[in-house]
Amino acid sequence: MKTGSIAFVASDNATAQEAFCILTQRYRSLPPDKADYIVALGGDGFMLETLHRYLYRNVPIYGMNRGTVGFLMNLFRENELMERLENAQPVTLHPLRMVARRINGEVVESLAFNEVSLLRETRQAAKLRVLLDRKVRLEELVCDGVLVCTPAGSTAYNLSAHGTILPLGANLLGLTPISAFRPRRWLGALLPHTAAIDFEICDAAKRPVSVVADYNEVRNVAEVHVREDRDIAMTLLFDPEHNLEERILMEQFLP
Prior knowledge:
This protein has helices at 14-26, 44-53, 81-87, 157-160, 244-251, and strands spanning 6-10, 37-42, 61-65, 89-93, 96-102, 107-112, 115-120, 126-132, 135-143, 145-149, 172-178, 189-192, 197-202, 209-213, 216-218, 221-228, 234-238. The longest helix is centred in the N-terminal third of the chain and has 13 residues, at 14-26. The model has no long low-confidence stretch (mean pLDDT 94). With 255 residues, the protein is an alpha+beta fold. α1 links the parallel β1 (6-10) and β2 (37-42).
């Protein structure tokens, strides 16, 4: 991959801001709307924000960890950045498109590169009807919530909810309950990436539910539709020794 101009963007935390100052002094930096590469300095949350912010720029994004977990980031090093960009391996991500209808009739759309999660808003469990390609698969799911994840997001909230890790390129989506009460033994499902998933909230006024697409929250929803949007593709860059596909695979063998 040929190197070109770079734009640096950074999280608000002190560590990321310090790295931003160092790198912008060392390398020529352009505004994000004019650069060939965007280098994001922060953690996984900031990477998700960067993906959303520059969704339609269609330039590769290379992250360096100046946050907490950094699963979607490369290691931070000041040296040889141009060479690292030149040798980086691309990974293509397709987001989930979420369309939610609130109780008052308002319709809200959002994208998610990690997951779309439905969560109860009060002390009472949520009651949901789950449909796949317009066919009812679960007449009633009583739970704290449920989520749909991409392969890239399968190691995040999905893994914490005991969902299955999905290899990149598997063309699958994960459907995972969060503290399911009924059916008690339902552990979720693996779905083809073409699946259209609908959630209907039962007793929405009495048992209110919110939906979160990455970090965008919509409260008091009545219906939620989720499907992968293959018309949108974002490219992340990873150092060969920090390959995202290998990291996702290795997560399945951690003790």
